[in-house]
Amino acid sequence: MNAWNLKNPSVFYCLNRMLFANVFYRYQMFVIISGEKIKVVNEWRLQNIANAGGATMAQ
Fold this sequence. Notes:
Blueprint: H1 3-7, H2 9-58
């Protein structure tokens, strides 16, 4: 924190908030995307198990 920031605390605060919001948003998106991938893989596995079970039962 230098003298310029101390003279203009609102500018520093605004930049800080923007930076934090940007990082938080990216983290949130990463978590959502990772969660979606995990969910899709799990659903695909369950679907395969269900299909395999249905096929053996049908025969």
